[in-house]
Design brief:
This protein is 43% helix and 14% strand. By secondary structure, it is an alpha+beta fold. Strands 1-7-2-5-8 form a 5-stranded antiparallel beta sheet, covered by helices on one side. Strands 4-3-6 form a 3-stranded antiparallel beta sheet. The longest helix has 24 residues. It is globular and about 55 Å long.
């Protein structure tokens, strides 16, 4: 891949328009693209059609499998496994249509064959319309998305026993969800786990214990993971100097940022940028 420094500078942002993308295993792309904690400015809808794995949403880990639909509201932190057997689709929901979807995360398991076929057909219809360039096709894609929201709401009503990755699963889950909210809001401010724990009125030890209980990871791991993901995006999508990225992410020096990034990713920020945005993320 051409070194990033020769690429034109792109604004560091995430898509907020209607967009559809495949979910599929790609060893060369790097697991950080799926597994590392991240969030988006607009909602996402995942539809898994093949394979199984785990997804962590707001600090709560659940399994997923074929014919699962997972709705992720804006600004909710998540990451998921996408092994060799996994295939599916991720839909970006425009901000203007976000009100048509739930306010909390919802994980539906479609067991009815007719519903499974309906969901697949709706995704195919949206993809078909988005592949065309005419304005009428864009309008049609948005109308299909509106129908998708109706379908999703009906499935919620038919599946009261669905597994939810929201904030109703006990004290530990609620605390960790609140912690992930604080991370998402303040991860660029150089605050540590002790600062977040103090804001939540608990000790760092208790916070880490709860994180390990809900997702098998420490409080520090979740925080570092979110920062590292953002660093990866900034290194991939901009030509900003490493020193500027370090500053933007709240690091006191470029050297400290480099050591932290290398400990997480296995190589330096400069190496990551020059070699196709990396191939792995080490979870600590």
């Amino acid at each position: 891949m051409t070194p990033m420094k020769t690429q034109p500078t792109r604004k560091h942002s995430q898509s907020t328009s209607l967009h559809i993308a495949p979910i599929a295993y790609n060893q060369l792309a790097g697991s950080w693209r799926t597994e590392a904690m991240r969030s988006h400015a607009t909602p996402r809808l995942l539809f898994i059609t093949k394979g199984q794995g785990r997804i962590t949403v707001a600090g709560m880990t659940h399994g997923y499998g074929p014919n699962n639909m997972i709705f992720l509201p804006a600004h909710v932190m998540y990451g998921y496994e996408a092994g060799p057997s996994v295939f599916g689709t991720m839909l970006t929901i425009p901000k203007a249509m976000a009100d048509e979807w739930p306010e909390e995360t919802v994980h539906l398991r479609l067991r009815d064959v007719h519903a499974q076929r309906q969901a697949a057909a709706m995704f195919e219809a949206i993809e078909h319309e988005l592949q065309a360039s005419q304005q009428t096709h864009s309008r049609a894609a948005h109308y299909h998305l509106g129908l998708m929201s109706v379908f999703f709401e009906r499935q919620m009503n038919l599946s009261p026993a669905r597994t939810a990755t929201d904030r109703t699963e006990g004290t530990a889950a609620r605390l960790v969800a609140a912690y992930t909210d604080l991370i998402e809001r303040d991860y660029k401010t150089a605050q540590g786990v002790s600062d977040f724990a103090a804001a939540l009125g608990v000790t760092p030890t208790h916070l880490t214990r709860c994180c390990n209980q809900t997702c098998g990871r420490s409080a520090l791991s979740l925080l570092r993971d979110r920062i590292t993901y953002e660093a990866c995006l900034m290194l991939r999508d901009s030509a900003a100097p490493v020193s500027q990225i370090a500053s933007d992410l709240g690091f006191r020096s470029a050297a400290y940022f480099t050591r932290s990034f290398q400990a997480k990713m296995g190589h330096t920020p400069s190496h990551f940028r020059k070699n196709g945005a990396g191939k792995s993320v080490r979870h600590h």
